[in-house]
Structure prediction request, 188 residues.
Amino acid sequence: MPKKSDSGGKGPDPSTNHPFPIAVPSGTKHPPPSRVPKWIRSHPGSASHSPANTGGTAQNAVGPKPTKAGDPVQRATTQMLPGRLQPLDPGILQQEIRFLRTSVEEQVVTLGWNIGEPPGHVTLNHSSVQPVHARMTYREGEWWIETLTHLDPVAVNHAVLMVSAPLRRLIDGDRIRIGEVEFQFYFP
Prediction:
């Protein structure tokens, strides 16, 4: 006898776009392909819902062509950009900052206490940091930094960067101060 679900004995509505595979008890027929969500039908590893197991034909199959032995596996990966910011005072900030690679050629990252969306913004939770305090740009294999506030400009190796100053290229070992938060820049 099938178990009752927490939804009052009714199973999930098959007409909704449910994010999980449809469970088929053993000894019963597989649901017709039209009742199986498209992402399951097109998933190459979904053998239980393949056209052969659902009564369909190979001409009706949806999804990528099967791979041959020796073909490279295509997977989505997260790539990191070279360079990182290591906080120097763990009493203020404890985690190092790493940067994600995106599809754009020139990566731009703002730093400040505003809550922003990564990877384009890093939130620094400290009262001395302005809402949008600094901007780091990665282009052609190098990191550059600039100040975005007049109140407490960014300092690199104790040299203050004013708002109108040109971008400063960062090199391995540079010390960066944003408000009262100090970092050591490591590259790569």
